[in-house]
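Appendix B. Chain record.
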Amino acid sequence: MQVCIIGGKLQGIEATYLAHKAGWEVLLVDKNPSPPAKGLCDLFYQVDVTNQNEFLPICRDARLLIPALENQKTLNALHHLAQKHALPLAYDPLTYAISSSKLKSDKLFMDLALPVPLPWPKGRFPLIVKPSNSSGSEGVRRMNTPEELESFRLSEGTLDGWIAQEFLEGPSFSLEVLGSPEAYQTLQVTDLEMDASYDCKRVLAPTALGESEIKQFEEITLTISKALNLRGIMDVEVILHDGQLKLLEIDARLPSQTPTAVYLSTGINMVELLGGLYLNPSGLTVSWPPSPRGVVYEHLKASPGRLEVSGEHIMANAGPLQLWENFFGADEAITNYEPHRAEWVATLIVTAESRKKAWKKRCGVIEQIRASCSLSTYLDPSPANSPSLQKS
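Structure tokens predicted for this chain:
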């Protein structure tokens, strides 16, 4: 069947990749003439979807419309068009309105008595300060002292519209849930690793969390889903700090990165499930494998003499990307790489029978890339320390 994906950046890459894995034809729409997902789709139209006279003839025959963006004006236009013309749109506006505001979602967490980082001024320094209406690492800042916070407040004029919480150290984890008020299904927990600016650079599966923590994470996720009357998909992120899971954020939309890792580890395709939820609302059918595969999913940036692991933001403005198989020994890569090109980026996808074997295979891929492209310097930065530097 044909699906229409609106938005060709990071979420669009994810949606297009998984839609193709489901065997669907992808019609991609973006007002940008060269979004990253353009090189992955079957048909591309450069259209501003708020211009309904132009967009409606393009999308009318699609079996499903999947928003892959966070522009509220565009989402409102899509919702209005879908209601007016009875188009199948995979979007829950009421839940999204809460999850897209950290102020609203944090209030929900408090009302539900869920474990969260302490808000300032209860929380002690250092603090993490982030804008309410952004996603991922966009705009995130660490404040180490009251003087830094006051300087930031003066530069902004106010802290209204910002969330300030205690900074917690520990590993981060993600979990997706799909469904409607009749029934919800949590999927596979994945492990997240961040770069120096708190942008997710790597997803690992299966999780290193223990069974009791996984169960607690699932209970937190289901509690939120029921409170929101979720219809669709939602991503939940937590951090494990001093042996306790603390809730960081939710996003009631198709996320990027983790769905592909879950698909490669379990065979469960979130985009296919999302389509089934909206096109066949009788219920979800999820088939779990007897044992998940190991997956390493990460982002690389190559420049003359240097290879760096980086957050996914490097993929957003890389121009049209292509899907490569057996990329220097990796199963797949989504990349703008060309032989003899000095600068390029890639999302590296490596799988094996176990996570340990996948990591070993991944390290071999990195060495092959460095040797083939003469990249003597290797960096893998994280928030906890300055960039690690290794030279051959």
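Further analysis of this model is presented in Appendix C.
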